[in-house]
Specification:
Radius of gyration: 18 Å
Strand content: 5-15%
Shape: globular
Number of strands: 8
Mean pLDDT: 88
Helix content: 25-40%
Order of helices and strands: HEHHEHEHEHEHHEHEHEH
Low-confidence stretches: none
Oligomer: single chain
């Protein structure tokens, strides 16, 4: 990595989360004993998203079995799975009254299926309680197991999302070594081949020491899997134990990368300093559904 960068430029700074809607969402989630990646990963967009009464639900607990250097989610030994969690998420979505939601999870290597069946149950519970609500399932790698990926795609989320996280060269330094860049590409390809309907999405961070050529190469690799959509945002160090920021990428460079993604052939792309994998997720469906045709499966 490059020498660490610690001072935040003006374009990174965000207002402290507050307001009636923010407090309402906080109270609702606390009352149902639910976790969100907004809190666990210290997302800088929490104030904006909660102010719009939206949240990214994180199921299977808030303790991850992986130890990725960039991530703010706590690692360690998770608690037993809350079997009532799918219905709790469904209750929260119904009470928030949203049209679209994102469901993600920590990685659970301790579970036989990585928690895939639990995620699928949650998707079905939300759709059963709130017909018409669309869902993005932002999932872990499941060790690249097609059967486990298939448990999630069979629940028919409108968007299947799995993050490539960073460019290939930086993967060994930033991600837990139990999975790889090539493995993540494989997960996206599996999902694309399993889904007749819906979209496949991935995200990765900038400002970690990657070059412009490596960003282009990552976009091309994602396209090759059949990935429809991509999100790119600035890596922000969650805490002292996490890896340093190599560079604060200026907004105009993010705009260039977003334009590049569209030029290469993505159906939907969003890039910006505060973009996160689930940020503006609902816009993907709003923008691509009218112009999306039949999906061609990849080989």
């Amino acid at each position: 990595m490059h020498p660490k960068t610690t001072r935040f430029p003006e374009w990174i700074r965000q207002a402290w989360p507050s307001g009636a809607a923010h407090e309402e969402v906080k109270s609702l989630l606390g009352g149902l004993d639910l976790h969100t990646v907004c809190q666990s990963a210290q997302c800088p967009n929490q104030g904006e998203c909660w102010g719009r009464r939206t949240a990214t639900f994180m199921v299977l607990g808030n303790v991850c079995t992986r130890h990725c250097s960039f991530c703010g989610v706590r690692g360690g030994k998770p608690l037993p799975v809350d079997e009532a969690e799918p219905e709790k998420v469904a209750e929260a979505v119904a009470r928030l009254g949203v049209r679209h939601t994102v469901i993600t999870s920590v990685t659970r290597d301790d579970l036989p299926d990585g928690g895939a069946a639990h995620i699928a149950r949650t998707i079905r519970a939300v759709k059963g309680r709130s017909p018409g609500v669309t869902i993005e399932a932002l999932v872990q790698d499941f060790g690249g197991n097609p059967e486990f990926v298939g448990l999630v795609t069979a629940a028919a989320p409108e968007v299947f999302s799995h993050n490539i996280e960073t460019v290939s060269r930086l993967h060994p330094a930033m991600r837990d070594r139990r999975f790889s860049y090539a493995g993540s590409l494989g997960v996206l390809r599996i999902a694309r081949n399993q889904m007749d309907e819906g979209f496949v999405k991935s995200s990765f961070m900038l400002g970690c020491g990657e070059s412009a050529e490596e960003v282009r190469g990552t976009l091309e690799d994602l396209l090759d899997t059949g990935c429809d959509a991509v999100a790119m945002g600035q890596y922000l160090r969650p805490g002292r134990v996490n890896g340093p920021v190599a560079e604060f990428v200026p907004p105009e460079k993010f705009a260039e990368y977003e334009a590049l993604a569209y030029d290469l052939g993505f159906t939907f792309a969003v890039a910006g300093p505060l973009v996160r994998s689930s940020y503006r997720s609902e816009e993907l469906l709003e923008k691509v559904r009218p112009r999306a045709g039949a999906r061609k499966k990849t080989s």
